[in-house]
Amino acid sequence: MSNPLISARGLTKKFGDFTAVNGIDFDVYKGESFGFLGPNGAGKSTAMRIIGATSQRTSGTISILGKDPELHGPQIRAHLGVVPQQDNLDMQLSVAENLYIYGRYFGLSRKFVKGKVNELLAFAQLEEKRDAKVETLSGGMKRRLTIARALVSEPEILMLDEPTTGLDPQARHILWDRLFRLKEQGVTLLITTHFMDEAEQLCDRLIVMDKGSIMAEGSPASLIKNYATKEVLELRFGSDRNQEMGAKLRTMCERIEELPDRVLMYTEDGEALLEKIYSADLHPKTSLVRRSSLEDVFLRLTGRTLIE
Amino acid sequence: MFIPMAVAIAEKRVGKLGERVYSGRVPQLLERGFIAFKSSTYMIVISGFVEPVLYLLSFGYGIGKLLPTITVGSETIKYAAFIAPALLATSAMNGAIYDSTMNVFFKLNHDRIYHGMLATSMGPLDVALGEIGWALLRGFSYACAFMAVIAPLGLVESVWGLLAIPAAVLIAFGFASCGMAVTSYMKSFQQLEIINMFLLPMFLFSGSFYPITVFPQWLQFTVNLMPLTHAINLVRGLCLGHINMALLSHALYFVVMIIIGLIFTTKRLNALFMK
C-alpha cells in the first residue's frame, strides 16, 4: 500500500490526571473510510481534534500528509473538512451566506466560492432554503449544511464527529447517502460514531476504542468474524429469570452474555440452537435469531454495550 | 499532483512570521461582519449613536444654562464644548466595548462560531484581529457621526479637532482588544455585568462633565489610571487645540493597551481552541 495520509504512533492526550487518549497507533490511507467506534468518553473526539490540528497531543507522534499538526496547523487544516459533533453554524447568516463565508475563511476567491455555494446547495438538497436563516432549519438540514460547509474548500479528508447523533432514521439515511457519494468521489472519510450500524454502513476499516485505548482494529466484517460468531440468539425469560437461565444455557453454545434484559447466545446456527433449547424444555418469552454485529464485538471486547 | 486551492493558499504563508496563529484573513472576517450587519437589528447601532447626543443635549444645554462657561487652564470655553470631546471619546469606547464583549461572548459560548472559524486554515490571531477590527470600525463610525453633530454646533474649538477621529479609532482599538481579552475569560452572562460595573463609574468620574481637579488627590490619582481619562484628555486636547507632549503619553497609553489586549486574546483563544 502507498504511504498513509494520517499516521499516529503512541498518540496520547491527558487533561490533568485524566488520560483521554492512551497511546494509540493507527494509519489512514487515501480514499478509505476510517472509523472510530466506541461509547461516549472513549477518546474518539479527542483523537479527531488532534488530527484536526485544534488540539495538541501530550505525547506520541502524528503526521498528517507528512506534517506535524502542532507545527503546521493552518496548512494542515487547509486539507481538512471538519464536521463537529455540535453544529456551530453562523446563526446570524443565511444558509448560502454560511457556505460563502466559510469558503472565504480559507482565503478562497469570491468567484470560486460563489460557484461552489451553488454546487453545495444542490449536494445538500438545500436549494430551496438558500436564503433562509439557519435557525429555521431542521436538525437534519443543519447537519447537511454543516457537511456542505466542510466541503467548500474541496478537502481531501473529511472528518465527521458523530455525524448522525440526534437525527431521525430518515434524516440519517439521507446523510449516509451523501457520504457514500463523497466516498465514491475519492474523499477520505474519518468518522467517529457510537452507532454500530453507522460504522458497519460507512466504514471500510475501523478501530474500536474504549477508555482511550484501541481494543481492536479491522474491517467490520473481519472484526465480526474474529470476535463474534456468525449468528446470535437473543432470548428473554423476563428480567428476574435471565441470569438463572443463563447458567443453565451456558454449556449449549460457544459463548453467552447475560444482560439485565436478555441473554445473548453466540453460535454458528441460531435456529438449530433454538430448537435444542425448546427440546430441553426451556421456554423463553421471546426469541430472535440475528447476524452478529459490531455491537457484539464491542460487548465481547469490553463486557459492556455501546450505548448505556 | 492536484493541489486544492485552499492548500495552495495556506502553503504561501509557510515561513512567515506567526504562521501558526495568523493567516492574513482579517478582511474575510470583516466581510463576515458586513454580511451579518446587513441583516442585524439597527436599533443597537442607532442607540450607540443616540446616547452621547442625549447626554450632550441634557447636560450641555441643561447644565450649560446654569454654567455657561468653564475654565480649562487659562482658557474659558462653553460648557458644551467642554463635555463634547469627552462624549466623543466615550462613544468610541462604547461602540468598541459592545462588539468586543456582548457580541464576542455570544459567538464564543453560545453560537460557537469561533470553533467553526478555527477549524479552517485561519489562526486565533486572525479571529482576534478580525473581531477587534470590526469593533474598531464601529467605534470609528460612532465617532464620525458624533463629530458630524458637534462640529456644526461650534463645539470643536480647533482644526486639530479633526485628529479626534483617528484618536477615537485608537481609543476604540484599545478598548476592543482589552474588552475581547477580558470577555474570553468570562464564563456566564452574569459575569459580563462586571464589565459594566467598571464602565459606568469610569464614565462618571473620568472628567467627562467637570475637570477631575475638583477631586481629592487620592481620587485624582486613581482616576488618572483609568483608560477613559486618557481617552478624554486626548480627544479634549485635540478638540481645544491644546497640543502638547501630554497628548502623546495619552496615545501611548492606548498603544500599550492594544498590545496587552492582543497578546492576552490570542493566548486565550489558543488555550480555548487548541487545548
Please, could you describe this protein's structure?
- The complex is a heterodimer of chains A (308) and B (275).
- With 308 residues, chain A is an alpha/beta fold.
- Helices cover 35% and strands 26% of the residues of chain A.
- Chain A has two domains: 6-219, 3-Layer(aba) Sandwich (Rossmann fold); 229-291, Alpha-Beta Plaits (2-Layer Sandwich), CATH 3.30.70.
- Chain A contains eleven helices and 13 strands.
- In chain A, β6, α6 and β7 form a beta-alpha-beta unit.
- The longest helix of chain A is centred in the middle third of the chain and has 16 residues, at 169-184.
- Chain B has a two-stranded antiparallel ribbon.
- Chain B is an all-alpha fold.
- The mean pLDDT of chain B is 88.
- The longest helix of chain B has 32 residues, at 79-110.
- In chain B, 72% of the residues lie in helices and 3% in strands.
- Chains A and B meet through α2 and α3 of A and α1, α2 and α5 of B.
* Rg of chain B, alpha carbons: 20 Å
Rounded to an integer in angstroms, the radius of gyration calculated over CA atoms of chain A is: 22 Å
SSE succession of chain B = HHHEEHHHHHHHH
Q: What is the percentage of strand-forming residues of chain B?
A: under 5%
How many structurally independent domains of chain B?
Answer: 1
N-to-C order of helices and strands of chain A: EEEHEHEHHHEHEHEEHEHEEHEH
By helix and strand content of chain B, what is the structural category? mainly alpha
**Helical segment count of chain B:** 11
Greatest interface (CB-CB under 8 A), with counts per chain:
A-B, 39 and 37 residues
CATH level-two architecture of the largest domain in chain A = 3-Layer(aba) Sandwich
Model regions low in confidence, pLDDT < 50 over at least 5 residues of chain B: none
CATH class of the largest domain in chain A: Alpha Beta
Main pleated sheet of chain B:
2 strands, antiparallel
